[in-house]
Amino acid sequence: MSDETPTHDEAHNGDIGARLNWLRAAVLGANDGVVSTAGLVVGVAGATNSRSALLTAGLAGLLAGSLSMAAGEYVSVSTQRDSEKAALAKEARELRTEPQAELAELAGLLEEQGLTPELAREVAQQYTARDALRAHASIELGIDPDELTNPWHAAGASFLAFTVGALLPLLAIVLPPTALRLPITVGSVLVALVLTGWGSARLGAAPVRPAILRNVAGGALAMAVTYGVGSLLGAAGV
Q1: Which of 98, 96, 95, 97 is nearest to 136 (CA)?
Q2: pLDDT exceeds 70 at position 13
Q3: What is the pLDDT of residues 93-126, one digit of tens each?
Q4: Who contacts 25 (Cβ-Cβ below 8 Å, separation ≥6)?
Q5: What is the model's pTM?
Q6: Are residues 134 and 145 in contact, defined by beta-carbon separation less than 8 angstroms?
Q7: What's the number of domains the chain is made of?
Q8: Is residue 33 a contact partner of residue 62, using CB atoms and an 8 Å limit?
Q9: How many Cα neighbours within 13 Å face the side chain of 2?
Q10: Residue 68 forms part of a structural domain
Q11: How far apart are CA 196 and CA 193, in angstroms?
Q12: SS3 of the chain: helix, strand, coil, percent, to 5
């Protein structure tokens, strides 16, 4: 029973780690959507009161930002996936051409993890007999051949997270009456930044207060700068 328990725990912990990484990426993507779209629409609001102009700018920023995030994630994760597949192919070739050298390498890696030389050799032989490529992929490369990163999943998650975050400032700036647009937008954005700062800190097991303060300060600064620039441009008739 003691031999099976660590394996189960490790798989469980790996699953949790993967979920936390996706959740953290979603929170950060939503935060990017909130900040970038809020800065855009508040800047336009500083130059004009036109609802159609605000809606057009907000939708353009939402689409551009979400598509840019999705494309960036797709390219990044595709590159990572290609690297993982190349590493697995190289390892498979080495296992075919130099099986004894690979066995010794695996035993050495197990020794580095604290096993005695004799036990490391025995475990390496058992791993190799069961599934040599999987053993080397996991221990040497840190890759699960059945769980390679998926670029489409990453792109879709980034697109969705950014869109959800961007919808808040967009709706807040176009739906209320003219006199209430800025207060409602700024207030709702700051509340959202508190929530995303709290969420990212909790998911990363980091202190909550500094994360919230940084998040709120950054968003408030972005809105203040863009509003100031928009006001100057509007006053100049640009």
Answers
A1: 95
A2: no
A3: 988 899 899 888 888 888 888 888 888 888 888 8
A4: 154, 157, 158, 161
A5: 0.74
A6: yes
A7: 1
A8: yes
A9: 0
A10: yes
A11: 5
A12: 85, 0, 15
